[in-house]
Amino acid sequence: MTDIGCALLAGQVAAGARAIRWLDDQDPRGREVLREIFPHTGRAHLVGITGPPGAGKSTLVDALIGEQRARGRRVGVIAVDPSSPFTGGAILGDRVRMQRHALDEGVFVRSMGTRGQAGGLSRSTYDACLVLDAMGYDVVLVETVGVGQDEIDIVSLAHTTVIVMVPGLGDEVQAIKAGLLEVGDVFLLNKADRDGVEQVGRELELMLHLRGQDGEAAAWRPPLLRMVATRGEGTGAAVDALEAHAAHLRASGQYQRQAGLRSYHQFTATLREAATRRLLERALRHSATAALVADVHDLKVDPYSAAEALLAQTEL
Amino acid sequence: MTAKSSRPLRILLAKLGLDTHTVGITVVAHALREAGMEVIFAGLKQTPEMVVSAAIQEDVDVIGISSLSAGHTRSLPRLARLLREQGGADKLLIVGGVIPEEDQPLLEAAGVARIFTMGTDTREIARYLNDWWLARLARAEPATRTEPSAPPRQ
Ligand code: B12
Ligand SMILES: Nc1nc2c(ncn2[C@@H]2O[C@H](COP(=O)(O)OP(=O)(O)OP(=O)(O)O)[C@@H](O)[C@H]2O)c(=O)[nH]1
Ligand SMILES: [Mg+2]
Question: What's the pTM value of the predicted model, to 2 decimals?
Answer without folding.
Answer: 0.92
